[in-house]
């Protein structure tokens, strides 16, 4: 029998315009109970699905959104097909008001078709929404998206940015794992994924421990919380998170931002390049490169080039927009030889 996850630490009584740098740079997750309780969207959602849908339609200007549709048999689990050669849902462009209508039509079905609109930029598709429903992240410029659908199960994955997710309608259950549990979550392909991020292949509703025995170890480190309308959760960068939407109608607003300068590329690029250049070296050479990475990257204290005259440090100097552009150009030339 798998152990039950521990509860995520909770804070309450915070206001959406009073979020501290200490919270927004934390390395552990935290639930923020009632953070967005004053949002008009949350108030409408507490009244009914129809009221929440009508409120969203106020801001919609007609541009089609990306929607994912699946048969009732998938039970909201957006995933691969049997042999991982494709996916178990179809992706289409559709008007948001038609998606909301579809959700309303099936709200009482015991086994409805799965309907999901993911990561839709609010400022583009719902202009004006944030004037009434927003968080103040202290001068940060986050990417703000909305996620709408009926019951769903989103496989465990990580995001590079830090994240605050606000439940604006419905209920969601979050199950989180620290980054070091990657080996115990049985991650699928890195370069062919349902939504851009690699995902765990374990079905959390019925884990196959014969195929995925180390998942039991992961569950010993798992944290969980169930959130209702107005609740929020801070998920630090690189924490694995599995998300279940539990009602016939659910809406979530999330804020992504990075604690790094804009000129920095995603570290996922370095991982892909390491797979290309390092993974298949002989073990002794891999250990040598591991030491170089440790020295110049993972244990960097800014002093590894102190013995080089400042004007001659080049890529070993702190990067700025110009030097990052020059380094990127050098890398592209190497890759295109």
TrEMBL record:
Protein origin, superkingdom: Bacteria
What Pfam families does this protein's entry cite? Answer: Cupin_8
Tell me the first and last residues of the signal peptide.
none
Cite the SMART domains for this sequence: JmjC
Every JmjC domain range: 115-272
* UniProt-recorded name of the protein: Cupin-like domain-containing protein
């Amino acid at each position: 029998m798998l152990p039950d996850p521990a509860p995520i630490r909770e804070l309450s009584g915070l206001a959406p315009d009073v979020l501290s740098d200490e919270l927004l740079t934390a390395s552990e997750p935290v639930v923020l109970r009632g953070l967005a309780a004053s949002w008009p969207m949350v108030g409408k959602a507490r009244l009914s699905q129809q009221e929440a849908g009508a409120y969203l339609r106020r801001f919609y200007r007609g541009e089609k959104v990306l929607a994912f549709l699946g048969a009732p048999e998938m039970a909201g689990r957006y995933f691969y097909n049997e042999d991982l050669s494709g996916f178990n849902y179809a992706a289409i462009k559709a008007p948001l008001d038609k998606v909301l209508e579809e959700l309303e039509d099936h709200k009482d079905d015991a086994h409805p078709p799965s309907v999901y609109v993911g990561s839709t930029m609010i400022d583009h598709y719902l202009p004006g929404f944030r004037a009434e429903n927003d968080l103040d992240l202290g001068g940060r410029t986050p990417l703000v998206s909305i996620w709408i659908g009926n019951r769903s199960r989103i496989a465990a994955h990580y995001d590079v940015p830090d994240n605050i997710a606000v439940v604006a309608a419905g209920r969601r259950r979050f199950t989180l794992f620290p980054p070091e549990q990657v080996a115990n979550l049985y991650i699928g392909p890195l370069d062919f994924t349902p939504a851009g991020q690699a995902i765990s292949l374990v079905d959390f509703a019925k884990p196959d421990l014969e195929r995925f025995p180390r998942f039991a170890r992961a569950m010993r480190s798992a944290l969980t919380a169930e959130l209702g309308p107005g609740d929020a959760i801070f998920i630090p960068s690189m924490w694995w998170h599995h998300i279940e939407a539990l009602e016939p109608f659910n809406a979530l607003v999330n804020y992504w931002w990075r604690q790094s300068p804009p000129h920095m590329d995603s570290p996922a690029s370095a991982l892909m390049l390491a797979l290309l250049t390092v993974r298949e070296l002989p073990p002794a050479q891999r250990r040598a490169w591991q030491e170089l990475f440790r020295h110049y990257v993972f244990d960097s204290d800014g002093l590894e080039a102190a013995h080089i005259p400042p004007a001659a440090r080049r890529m070993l100097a702190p990067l700025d927009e110009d030097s990052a552009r020059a380094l990127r150009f050098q890398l592209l030339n190497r890759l295109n030889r």
